[in-house]
Design brief:
By secondary structure, this protein is mostly helical. It has helices at residues 6-17, 24-31, 39-52, 72-85, 90-99, 103-119, and strands at 22-23, 55-60, 63-68.
């Protein structure tokens, strides 16, 4: 899985932040708050993301409404999984990653690990 390009990532962040399916115009207006970008450029990249399977869409009048096919967490998980697959010592990579997490993230990780243990009947 290829990492998103800069514009793809910006579009996906906008879509993920939306509370409902978004028109290209909605995304373009969101992106234009921080950069000068043409509607057609956003439309083209959203179509590419649709063809890649990252966006879903439905026709509404003459326009499409788009929504994410997977969550931002799913995307990040796939990136981490790929990175781990290329590591000779996955435990060492995870250990190093964990030591860099802020305390509040570590607390969430501990809770998730405890939940996983309970589901597997380990505690």
């Amino acid at each position: 899985m290829a990492k998103f390009g800069e514009l793809e990532a910006a579009i996906m962040r906008s879509v993920w932040a939306g509370s409902e399916p978004m028109r290209v115009r909605d995304v373009a207006e969101d992106l234009q708050r921080e950069r000068d970008i043409a509607f057609n450029t956003v439309q083209t990249v959203m179509d590419i993301l649709y063809r890649k399977g990252w966006l879903k869409r439905a026709k509404e009048g003459r326009a499409y409404r788009y929504w994410a096919a997977a969550s931002q967490e799913d995307y990040a998980t796939k990136l981490v999984e790929e990175a781990l697959e290329s590591a000779p010592d996955q435990a060492a990579v995870l250990s190093r990653l964990i030591t860099q997490l802020p305390e509040e993230e570590l607390s969430g990780l501990r809770a998730a690990l405890n939940d996983a243990k309970r589901r597997e009947g380990m505690t």
